[in-house]
Amino acid sequence: MKKQIRALIAKPGLDGHDRGALIIAQALRDQGMEVIYTGLRQSPVQIAQAAIQEDVDVVGLSSLSGAHKSLFPKVVQALKDKGAEDIPVIGGGVIPAEDIPYLEDQGVAKIFTSGTPTEEIAKYIEKMVDPESSLVAAPKKIAHIGIAVKQLEAALPFYQDVLGLKLENVEEVTSEQVRVAFLKIGETRLELLEPLSEDSPIHQHIEKRGEGIHHLALEVDDISERLNQYKESGVALIHDTPKTGAHDSQIAFLHPKAGHGVLYELCQHSEKE
Amino acid sequence: MSDQSKYHQQKQQWETDVEKTSKRFPERKDDFVTSSEISIDRLYTPEEASSGTYEDKLGFPGQYPYTRGIQPTMYRSRYWTMRQYAGFGSAEETNKRFRYLLEQGQTGLSVAFDLPTQIGYDSDDPMAEGEVGKVGVAIDSLKDMEQLFDQIPLDKVSTSMTINAPASILLCMYIAVGEKQGVPMEKLTGTIQNDILKEYIARGTYIYPPKPSMRLITNIFGYCQTNVPKFNTISISGYHIREAGSTAVQEVAFTIANGMAYVDAAIESGLEVDQFAPRLAFFFNAHNQFFEEVAKFRAARRIWAKIMKEHYQAENPKSWKLRFHTQTGGSTLTAQQPDNNIVRVTLQALAAVMGGTQSLHTNSRDEALALPTEDSARIALRTQQIIANESGVADTIDPLGGSYYVESLTDKIEEEVNDYLERIEKLGGAVQAVEDGYMQREIHQSAYEAQKRIESGEEIIVGMNEFRIEEEINPDLLRVDEALEAQQIEQTKNIRESRNQQLVDNCLDNLKEAARQEKENLMPYILEAVKAYATVGEIANVLREEFGEYTGM
Q1: Which residues belong to any copy of the Methylmalonyl-CoA mutase alpha/beta chain catalytic domain (chain B) (predicted)?
Q2: CATH fold of A6-135, please?
Q3: DSSP conformation letters of B59-119
Q4: Residues 29-68 of A with CB under 8 A from B
Q5: Chain A: residue whose CA lies nearest to B455
Q6: How large is the average pLDDT for residues A196-205?
Q7: A-chain residues within 8 Å CB-CB of B365?
Q8: Does A134 have pLDDT greater than 60?
Q9: B302 interfaces chain A, CB cutoff of 8 Å
Q10: In terms of pTM, does the model score above 0.90?
């Protein structure tokens, strides 16, 4: 089992605005972390003491009073003075962008500005505390199953009329030189792919193997980071950076030899969907 | 058939027709609700808006229960007071901003103090480190206060001061500055916030435990009713409760519960309700949900009037009137695409005006990032001036009164607030509920749910979770000079060296002695100490020793 992450959320200085700190504390708890909240008006030394005493993995500071430039580095320093510089410090609040480089320079690991989703903060902490952990996040579902066809109009009647599936849309993906049709089925989709030119990989596929199942697409988050991680661990890739696919999604293909003969596509949909 | 049942039948018929249409044109959501989770009907008709008689529920402006406004003429005689909250850095710098705002047509002052001042620490106290002059002006001694109001005649402006735990000290300083200008204290007008309960609940600038804090507040009530009769002795504030994440209903409910606690405390200390109640003022927030906000202000007036008349049996109509200041909602502003905030502020300011506010602060577009620049503060003031002079909304009283929807919402908010008031009473009143953390938990729950709605995309914040652009979030921001802290410490050191120390010591000893006598009013002792140039920190520390410190839940 994974080790439970312990976080200290602290309010340095005199600022009494603790809505943000309380929300972060609860959100991290909901993400399975153990969270200790210091309450208001903590001095940097008190915060460092609490961090050591509670044996936390990370300290999160919140300030909305403009005192961050003076107080955040002091917390970093106080941890160092007590030999606990291995506990990373992150921060947020009302912090102008131009102050961020200074704070990072002073040893604050990361500043999250207003509007950051709490889930993003939780993910950042998880990755920081346990860099291995994020490797294992499994793809969420099968985004679609790709089927190579010679001509969409010839194939659609079977899918629409015989199977009774609903056609969602038809679009051209110029990067792959294909025209695609999406048919919804349960929580996933069938994607029919028709080659637009002889350069299209679909054309080559049909030439070699005839019509049929072409690939499986897996729905993922953080496609770029995932590709980096796969690359580092030696997974054979066709694309090592994402490109734009249908519906403005970000896509990349793994090499079929990685999937033991199955061509996998990673697919990250834009938020609008 | 009565009109009521006729409307009822016709509406049901109409709803049946709508159901058919909505199969082809589905509605955007299954449930429409306000920020307080009040469910919103598809349409409002006389049926929903007509419980009770016109006289009981609405009445006329200037008449009980004041739903439509507290003055008979409202903005047809005089617009609301345009009062922009300002203060940063040194007294000298803030004085310049004040005079700039007055030149631009602002009609009242509103002082923001820095956090050390608000928590009773001098600038040279180790606790003040990094905070001096950051969120407001640093005031240590009377000297700073003299500079703050230099060339501003105190008989001509009314001044609101956001000061709570040390309110008595700052009010005494204001009185002393007036005296130096030759303005007697009975002529001074303005407001001190002086609302400690919401500090425990939501804002955090408390010093002492609740009991002695309530004593300081009633001391101010008692002193001012004879000596400073035109000053509003408290501004019972829902603003910060809302900023901490409450709903509109919770904002009104907790504020009124706190208000009742102050009235109880004052009566218990021996004051007559009709002598202090006319000087109680309120302070609310204005958020984006326009109709709910308008209804909230109207409901708050009606609830307070009923409580004062029926529960406390006040006889002076002035005791029944809920007068309030409004500030637009700081927490609704986004750091992303900050110019969009001008539009948000306009909507919120309009709601405050339609709700009948007595004074208004409009936030500046850059306040999600820093204190406002002079340009941003001017646009914020201009927003009010445009609403007043160009939109025509101030030409008739309570223009939304009679709207089926607004009246129905007003009723609904009143009902839900009364439910909360009952619950708080059962818990033993507001002071007890605060000490138990009841209100804090309720607010946090609402805040967390709102955050989840935003993160799931259920609630759209333009520019933040939708309609985003690539942008450098880095407009010109106001920066408080980092050298200020050292200068302020130096000035306070000089004051300590040049004043009559023997006199200061005597004043502080007398205050200490008086603090031990529970029946003694501390105001005259604080005034003497202030005049001798005892500092905010020194006076607050004497009381810390006597009263102890509040350390949170």
Answers
A1: 34-549
A2: Rossmann fold (3.40.50)
A3: --TTSTT-TT-SSSSGGGTSPPEEEEEE--B-HHHHHHHHHHHHHTT--EEEEEBPHHHHT
A4: 39-41, 43, 65-67
A5: A117
A6: 91
A7: none
A8: no
A9: no
A10: no
